[in-house]
């Protein structure tokens, strides 16, 4: 599962890449994000009420209530940052968002860890003319968190869809990798039927990716090699 990614692209480049009108960019002055953890804020591209693309900020991870088994008191909610591709129409946590609220999650790399004590970190990026080409994870979003009180209950949250790994990711994480979409598939993911969207849930070609950084305790990606 992916629980750390980076988004280093400039804001104007992000708007161009995702074909978002500047008037529909609601990020404010967005800074580069070299380490995005669950519950952190990050940009997503979603469809507005009028069907046009917009850039907004969302917290990473669908939230579910959590209660102490000892005291019965509410605890900080769990954040579900990954949605399995084979569970999207079966799990109540994901189904409505898959059918009605798909989004694009901009990123420039993602990290997986191998081993433990200590784990080695691997940052995966796409191959391209830039050091960290911009891409999109297949994502879902929702507004409001049923059963969760306080500020967190009003958050917009997002999650990213995972699938089986390709040959590059598999030696590091043998079971899952995030779904990365080609630009020509963005419109289908946002607007297509559930069957059309589901057809995009496949491993990204390994030959179009590379390991950009690796090492012990490499928990940020600044774009440097």
TrEMBL record:
InterPro entries in the record: SRAP (IPR003738), SRAP-like (IPR036590)
EC number from the UniProt entry: 3.4.-.-
Molecular function GO labels: lyase activity; peptidase activity; single-stranded DNA binding
One Pfam family in the UniProt entry: SRAP
Keywords on record: Covalent protein-DNA linkage, DNA damage, DNA-binding, Hydrolase, Lyase, Protease
Enzyme class: hydrolase
GO biological process: protein-DNA covalent cross-linking repair; proteolysis
Family the entry assigns: Belongs to the SOS response-associated peptidase family.
PANTHER family xref list: ABASIC SITE PROCESSING PROTEIN HMCES (PTHR13604:SF0), DC12-RELATED (PTHR13604)
Annotated protein name in UniProt: Abasic site processing protein
Source organism: Paracoccus versutus (Thiobacillus versutus)
